[in-house]
User: What shape does this take?
Amino acid sequence: MNLLYLRVILLGVCCVRPLAATHPSDGHRYGESSYFIVKEKVDWYRAKYICAESRANLAVPKTQSEQDYIWELFLKEFDQNPSTDLWIGCNDIEEEGNWQHCPLKGETNAFENWAEEEPNNDYGADCGSLWVDRNGKWDDYPCNEEIYAVCETTVSNTPKFCLQTGKDGRLVSPEHSSTHH
Ligand SMILES: [Ca+2]
Ligand SMILES: [Ca+2]
Assistant: This one.
């Protein structure tokens, strides 16, 4: 193989996308995210851990359409009849009433979807869920209860890194790329 031919091959390698590494293969794509339902009943901390194992986070609906997508995905996974509510990522674990990731009613202009009179801190509820009996509206629920969960990971359309060739035609190893090889 002559050197010129080798250079052409190496240039062709440029911009290889890291596939699958950032989201599980059974994820459901919507917009810039991929979602999957944790189909076992777990407490909120365990749910968060299961998401993290797939490099995901507990999902937080940030628009009505994202809320609808997650809710419909959940119903579909359980033939329209899930037996428990669904953990999402918002919580006021650190400080009572200081909700992380989900704004309170009237707090900002950002999307919120709390059910009537929620969050109410009933039984020391500190973790957010989509409430089956309220058609997916948000409820604060005790974190140690065991229910289903939804994970979300961002799917980027742009390449995370490029392989580059140096002046001598050899592959130049970009910084921070080692974890992808
Ligand atoms: Ca609380
Ligand atoms: Ca509640």
About this structure: Helices lie at 3-12, 44-53, 64-77. The two ends are 25 Å apart (CA to CA). The domain at 22-155 is CATH 3.10.100.10 (Mannose-Binding Protein A; Chain A).
